[in-house]
Write a structure and sequence with these properties.
Elements: H1 10-48, H2 50-73
Helix pairs in contact: 1-2
Length: about 80
């Protein structure tokens, strides 16, 4: 049927498994780091002044609005 003596090297199996794990975890980790960056930028902006803080808050709200608009235009996934 098939040759039992031929196996993939251990490093190739480790590469495939790590790629699968990082492929699953990429978007949640990107969202967490993006949220932490936005909160940090908001704190720094409010430390610089109220106007800067409100400007950054408006930028965050605009980014969320654009993402929601973009997501509604995508076809549904089943």
């Amino acid at each position: 049927m098939y040759d039992r003596g031929k196996h993939a090297p251990w490093w190739q199996e480790a590469f495939v498994l790590s790629r699968a794990v990082f492929g699953v975890l990429f978007w949640p980790l990107a969202a967490i780091f993006g949220l932490l960056t936005a909160i940090g930028g908001l704190v720094v902006a409010f430390s610089a002044g109220v106007i800067w803080g409100l400007l950054v808050l408006a930028l965050i709200a605009a980014a969320i609005t654009v993402f929601a608009w973009w997501d509604r235009r995508q076809p549904p996934r089943y």
